[in-house]
Design brief:
19% helix; alpha+beta
Length: 191
C-alpha cells in the first residue's frame, strides 16, 4: 500500500491494514489522542514510522459526484486516534505537529477503553458488508449482548429501526458511539 493510501480496495470497501492488537502493556496506557483537524491519518502514519502502537478506527464513506462514485475511508471518531503511550512516547507524538492533547486515563479507565476499542474493532470488521453509523451521543435503550456472527460477545445499546436492531458500542471516554444494523435474532438482552 502506498503512503497516504486510504486502504480501500476497489469497490469492495475492504480495509487492508494490519489489525492492531489492543492489549495492555506494562508501563504503557491506551490513550485517546486529540488531533489537529483532519490529521488523524497523518498521526497514524507517523506512529507507524516510529513503531508507536496506534489504532485509528475507519469507516467507509461513499459519495456520488454526477455519474462517478468515490469511496473513502474516514475516521469513525473525528479528531481522535488511540495510542498506547507512556510519557516519553507522548512527548515524541507532540513532535509530529498533529497532536493537540491526550485524554488522561488511569488503569481502570484503560481497561474499559480496551473493551470498548475491541468492540469498535469488531464493528469495523463488519464495514465491508454493512454501513456503520457514527453518532455523537448514545441514545438510551436496552443493554444487549450479541450472541451470533462476527460481533459475538460485544455489548451495546439497542435502538430499533425498520424491523432490525441498531446496535451501538459506546466509547465512554469520548462520549461517542458507533452503530451497525443487525438482525433481531443475533442479539439478546444483557443480564
Amino acid at each position: 500500500m502506498r503512503p497516504g493510501d486510504d486502504g480501500a480496495k476497489g469497490g469492495a470497501g475492504a480495509i487492508l491494514r494490519p489489525r492492531v492488537e489492543i492489549v495492555p502493556a506494562a508501563g504503557m496506557l491506551w490513550t485517546p489522542v486529540r488531533t489537529r483537524p483532519r490529521r488523524e491519518k497523518k498521526l497514524a502514519e507517523y506512529c507507524a514510522a516510529k513503531a508507536i502502537t496506534c489504532y485509528l478506527p475507519l469507516t467507509r464513506s461513499v459519495k456520488r459526484y454526477g455519474s462517478k462514485t468515490h469511496e473513502f475511508l474516514l475516521p469513525m471518531f473525528a479528531g481522535y486516534a488511540f495510542c498506547q503511550l507512556d510519557e516519553p512516547l507522548f512527548r515524541e507524538l507532540l513532535g509530529s505537529h498533529t497532536v493537540l492533547f491526550r485524554v488522561m486515563v488511569d488503569g481502570s479507565a484503560e481497561s474499559r477503553l480496551i473493551d470498548d476499542l475491541r468492540g469498535v474493532q469488531a464493528l469495523e470488521s463488519c464495514a465491508v458488508g454493512k454501513e456503520l453509523v457514527v453518532k455523537p451521543e448514545l441514545t438510551p435503550g436496552a443493554a444487549v449482548l450479541v450472541r451470533n456472527g462476527p460481533l459475538k460477545g460485544v455489548k451495546g445499546v439497542v435502538q430499533r429501526r425498520q424491523g432490525g436492531v441498531m446496535l451501538f458500542v459506546n466509547i465512554e471516554i469520548l462520549g461517542n458511539s458507533v452503530g451497525v444494523q443487525l438482525d433481531v435474532g443475533d442479539v439478546e438482552l444483557d443480564a
